Sequence to fold (272 residues):
Amino acid sequence: MNVQYYAEPGPMTTVSAQADLLEGLPASIADLVRVVQGNLIHVFWAERYGRKLSEAENFTLTVREVERKLEVMHQANPAPLITTRALEQRQVGNCRDFSTLLCALLRHQGIPARARCGFGTYFLPGHYEDHWMCEYWQAGEGRWVQVDAQLDDFQQQALGIDFAPLDMPPGRFILAGEAYQMCRAGKANPDDFGIFDMHGLDFIQGNVVRDFLALNKVEILPWDWGWGFLTPEKFTDRALFDRLAALSTNADASFDEIRALFEADPAVGVPT
Fold:
């Protein structure tokens, strides 16, 4: 295990060019999550908060790099990130954005953190919802702590959340590799995993890829597709996905192999 690797930013979580926006960042996880929530609004929840989004506002969903997202925030409102923005000024994002922004802020402070892709069990009964969360290394306890930065007070109440989003208990968030293994073993129905009308084992495999890449500090967008092992031909290679799932569900013990596979196999690497 190389925890320190996750204390440094990757290509998606570098924020140095926007350092002025990060002035006065708090250190506690609770306060950092409030900073994230005070600057983002989830695209699928916006109307429930009372904000109707225009087509133009949704373009930020396609911005991959946190540094660029912060630049757009600064253009809209030059106040520091610790300023809670008015609802209409919050940047449109999704679960990947909440998780990746929190990950970037933690790494900026030298705290090991990583975004993880998988499925939440707490959005719809009997359903595993396509989702991302962030985990950070709690050095004093020697463990990774799972945090769902998207779940503010409003969402917690609406969803009837009965656990602490800042330290989620096991089983509430299912890593993509875990979901894949559950379905391969016949312990779960692949059609119970997904979002809207998108579901099934292929969908799960897409998230296995995204989680594997996030473990290499490349947090791609949920719909990035079309190269290497994100192609229809590769999706038939069950042995490959068996391996990716095994590695990502045991990420700390498999750290060296995860990094070696990412660096050595062109099909696994990410194009510029």
User: Anything to note?
Assistant: The chain has a mean pLDDT of 94.
